[in-house]
Design a protein that fits this description.
Helix content: 25-40%
Shape: globular
Mean pLDDT: 94
Low-confidence stretches: none
Structural class: alpha+beta
CATH superfamily: Nucleoside Triphosphate Pyrophosphohydrolase
Largest sheet: 8 strands, mixed
Radius of gyration: 16 Å
Distance between the termini: 45 Å
Order of helices and strands: HHEEEEHEEEEHH
Number of helices: 5
Strand content: 25-35%
CATH architecture: Alpha-Beta Complex
Length: 185
């Protein structure tokens, strides 16, 4: 008998729920646990109500800067990341997206645990209905001296001071990651 392929994701999420930054993140983590448990196809983009995504919160070794993308479709500064497209190894998804969206090659994971969990509504566009992204976020370290390449998914990439996050994206999701990081520095 094979084990449920979602077991590792659920284990990561349950461990993260216990150390969530606040009640709001804990509630989003629980909503993500419930979503994954209820949907065997939770990592498939074809699941119209929502799906898992993986993000890379890329930081420099001092934890004072983060690499953000000015996302082309959403027209806002965000961490790098994207759809799982069936891959339940969300750390690998975050890693893949970091490489695809920046062409950085000297990336180092900062632990195996989740750094942050966010659930956010994606507006309807063309053939896609409004749906949820259940975003599992991992901290990854990079050297800011390594050259990056801006992909066609971005208007721009930039290393920004985490303390100035509100100047780039004041949404609570981004501010929470900034606060967590500055608390680690």
């Amino acid at each position: 008998m094979s084990s449920d392929p979602r077991a590792a994701v659920l284990q990561l999420l349950r461990a993260h729920r216990a150390r969530a930054a606040d009640d709001h993140e804990a509630a989003m983590t629980q909503a993500t646990i419930d979503f994954v448990a209820a949907n065997p196809d939770c990592a498939q983009r074809s699941l119209r109500v929502g799906h898992l995504t993986g993000s890379a919160w890329i930081v420099d070794p001092s934890r004072r800067h983060t690499l953000l993308t000015h996302h082309r479709k959403l027209n806002k500064w965000l961490q790098l990341g994207g759809h799982a497209d069936g891959d339940l190894d969300l750390a690998a998804v975050a890693w893949r997206e970091a490489v695809e969206e920046s062409c950085l090659s000297q990336l180092n994971p900062v632990g195996a645990d989740l750094f942050d969990v966010d659930r956010h509504l994606i507006p309807a566009r063309r053939n896609e209905p409004e749906h949820w992204h259940y975003d599992l976020r991992f901290m990854i370290e990079a050297d800011p001296a390594e050259p990056f390449v801006v992909s066609d998914e971005s208007h721009e990439l930039a290393w920004i001071e985490i303390a100035r996050m509100a100047d780039y994206n004041p949404e609570e999701s981004m501010m929470r990651m900034a606060r967590k990081t500055l608390g680690l520095a």
